[in-house]
Design goal:
Blueprint lengths: L13 E7 L2 E9 L6 H11 L5 E8 L5 E5 L9 H11 L4 E8 L6 H14 L1
Length: 124
């Protein structure tokens, strides 16, 4: 057998909040089975959080963990989607998406601050 069919995922939806310098980062984790589930999830969050500035995410699919994608949604490249994906990789999770909704608090966090905020929100 080339790949092990077992994998780690989550049983149900979860959320966590991280705050930094007035910005609020709300992380949502959902179990998913296909890429077709992603757009409706993001659209739902965009409706629910109409005043939020960014909806950054990362997902990982399939037991062999070969399907993944990141999205920084307007944040500087590599500051949002990559730290979220790194959380999935460090826990070896698959069939999961984490979306972090950011409400801008008026203070720029800079590249290191954004990486830290998206990572910490994802870990919540």
């Amino acid at each position: 057998m080339l790949f092990d069919d077992s994998y780690k995922t989550i049983n149900g939806a979860a959320e966590g909040i991280f705050r930094d310098k007035g910005s609020k980062f709300i992380a949502y984790a959902y179990p998913i089975r296909s890429e077709e589930e992603i757009k409706p999830l993001i659209n739902n969050l965009r409706s629910e959080h109409a005043k939020a500035r960014h909806f950054c995410y990362a997902y990982r699919l399939t037991p062999d963990r070969s399907v993944y994608r990141i999205n920084d949604d307007g944040e500087p490249s590599g500051t949002a989607g990559r730290p979220i994906l790194n959380c999935l990789l460090s826990e070896d999770l698959t069939n999961i998406i984490i979306v972090v909704v950011r409400y801008f608090g008026g203070t720029l966090l800079g590249v290191p601050g954004l990486i830290n905020a998206y990572k910490n929100a994802s870990l919540e």
